[in-house]
Amino acid sequence: MTVARSVLLFILAAGAEIGGCWLIWQAVRDHRPWWLAVGGVLALAAYGFVATAQPDAAFGRVLAAYGGVFVAGSLVWGVVFDGLRPARTDLIGAGICLVGVAVIMYAPRH
């Protein structure tokens, strides 16, 4: 159950961080309403709190692993919200990152 909870938290954190960045991008780069940036800032704050709920207490480990989730999640976000068509190399790179996440977070430690 701990791994399932951890994976769910990574997904929620990715949604908050990537979504927050995307909202700010929309407001600043795409000249959309300013309140989207405010929503982005709130989503980024939520990300910070979600990340602290990870069962592993090592900040560096959690954030290092989250980097891989962010890479893969950003590509998924791009497909869903921006019509991105990832190249094969994008998908391979994201897969490598997710393997890294699994090793960092879930491999046995001595």
Automatic annotation (TrEMBL):
Localization per Swiss-Prot or TrEMBL: Cell membrane
Transmembrane annotation, as ranges: 7-28, 34-51, 58-79, 91-108
Pfam families linked to this entry: UPF0060
Membrane topology reported for the UniProt record: Multi-pass membrane protein
UniProt entry tagged with the keyword Membrane: yes
Alphabetical keyword list: Cell membrane, Membrane, Transmembrane, Transmembrane helix
Family: Belongs to the UPF0060 family.
Stated name of the protein: YnfA family protein
